[in-house]
């Protein structure tokens, strides 16, 4: 099979409708063998609020902030994410592609372990152990399932939901999910589109980082970007040639990304 590109479309681009421009530019780019992964955190929060449920976020000791997913939140998460996946697939299909929205629950192609307990840092800065809810740590991706879809000429549009080992449906992080998929199928590129030009340190967008530079930089980046940089590191450590974090908020975002505009993580 020709080279595979895994493209993640950030939640911020979904809320602002800018994902349509990214999808149109995928068409212009002539890229083949694409797997799309999407986010949608803001949309999930909006729906939670509309349903009268205040979103809750927790912070890990490493400083990573994530949504607390109780059963009701999980149902809203699944509903909103699959709706986004359907909209992306529908737009790709209107461009002449054959796209299919799937989540990791379909054929259990993404298996994750439920985090039964979470260690969090509370408002007072104290460490606490709480019930884990329905978030998962990705353990396995069925690469042959994805490759079979690609061989059928389909574009998989993956919603960030996984299948738990006890039959649970689990919320998984989209950036880490895209990275796990890129690794498993042996993608040549992982492109993470978001609402900024890349990793910004001291007001400057970083251009190219080796794995060791990327790991150093990780200590200095804030919430949101931390998971993207980590996703790129994990991908490149496991054989993906390049992890790119790039802006999806420009005229030709895919063309720019293919020229390498944004922050690139490479082996050395
Ligand atoms: N050092 C940094 N450089 C650039 N952005 C940073 C940095 N630290 C924190 N950020 C924040 O990270 C954000 C991007 O992460 P965020 O999770 O919001 O992205 P997203 O594209 O909406 O994706 P998703 O919701 O799918 O994870 C930026 O908008 C920025 O506010
Ligand atoms: Mg995020």
Structural features, described:
With 268 residues, the chain is of the alpha/beta class. It has a single domain (5-52, 70-110, 138-266), classed as 3-Layer(aba) Sandwich (Carbamate kinase). It is 37% helix and 29% strand. The strands form 5 sheets. It has an 8-stranded mixed β-sheet with strand order 5-10-2-1-13-17-18-16, with helices on both faces. A hairpin with a 5-residue loop joins strand 3 (57-59) and strand 4. It binds adenosine-5'-triphosphate and magnesium ion.
SSE topology sketch:
Layout: E1 5-9, H1 11-15, H2 19-29, E2 34-38, H3 41-50, E3 57-59, E4 65-67, H4 71-94, E5 99-103, E6 110-114, E7 117-121, E8 127-131, E9 136-141, H5 143-151, E10 155-159, E11 161-164, E12 169-171, H6 174-185, E13 189-194, E14 200-201, E15 204-205, E16 208-210, H7 211-218, H8 225-237, E17 242-247, H9 253-258, E18 263-266
Helix pairs in contact: 3-4, 6-8, 7-8
The protein binds adenosine-5'-triphosphate and magnesium ion.
Magnesium ion binds next to loops.
List keywords for this structure.
alpha/beta; Carbamate kinase; eight-stranded mixed sheet; four-stranded mixed sheet; 18 strands; 29% strand; binds adenosine-5'-triphosphate; binds magnesium ion
Beta-strand content: 25-35%
Overall CATH architecture? 3-Layer(aba) Sandwich
Count of individual helical segments: 9
Strand order of the largest sheet: 5-10-2-1-13-17-18-16
Number of domains: 1
Order of helices and strands: EHHEHEEHEEEEEHEEEHEEEEHHEHE
Helix content: 25-40%
By oligomeric state, this entry counts as single chain
- Return residue spans where pLDDT drops below 50 for at least 5 consecutive residues: none
Class derived from helix and strand content:
alpha/beta
Overall mean pLDDT stands at: 96
CATH class: Alpha Beta
CATH topology: Carbamate kinase
The number of E-state strands comes to 18
**Can you say what the CATH homologous superfamily is?**
Acetylglutamate kinase-like
Shape: globular
Largest sheet: 8 strands, mixed
Bound molecules: adenosine-5'-triphosphate, magnesium ion
């Amino acid at each position: 099979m020709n080279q595979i590109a895994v493209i993640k479309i950030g939640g911020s681009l979904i809320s602002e409708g800018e994902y349509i421009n990214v999808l149109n530019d995928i068409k212009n780019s002539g890229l083949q063998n694409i797997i799309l992964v999407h986010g949608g955190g803001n949309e999930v929060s909006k729906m939670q609020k509309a349903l009268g449920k205040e979103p809750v976020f927790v912070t890990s000791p490493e400083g990573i902030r994530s949504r607390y997913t109780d059963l009701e939140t999980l149902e809203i998460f699944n509903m909103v994410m699959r709706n986004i996946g359907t909209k992306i697939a529908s737009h790709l299909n209107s461009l002449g592609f054959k796209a299919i929205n799937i989540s990791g629950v379909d054929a259990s192609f993404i298996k994750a372990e439920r985090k039964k307990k979470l260690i969090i840092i509370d408002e007072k800065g104290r460490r606490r152990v709480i019930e884990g809810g329905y978030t998962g740590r990705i353990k396995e991706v069925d690469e042959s399932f994805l490759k079979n879809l690609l061989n059928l000429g389909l574009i998989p549009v993956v919603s960030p939901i996984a299948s738990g080992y006890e039959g649970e449906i689990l919320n998984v992080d989209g950036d880490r999910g895209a990275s796990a998929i890129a690794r498993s199928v042996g993608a040549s590129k992982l492109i993470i589109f978001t609402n900024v030009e890349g990793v910004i340190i001291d007001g400057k967008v970083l251009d190219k980082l080796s794995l060791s530079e990327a790991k150093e930089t990780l200590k200095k980046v804030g919430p949101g970007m931390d998971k993207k940089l980590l996703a790129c590191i994990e991908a490149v450590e496991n054989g993906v040639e390049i992890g790119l974090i790039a802006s999806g908020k420009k005229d030709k975002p895919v063309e720019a990304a293919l020229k390498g505009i944004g922050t690139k993580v490479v082996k050395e």
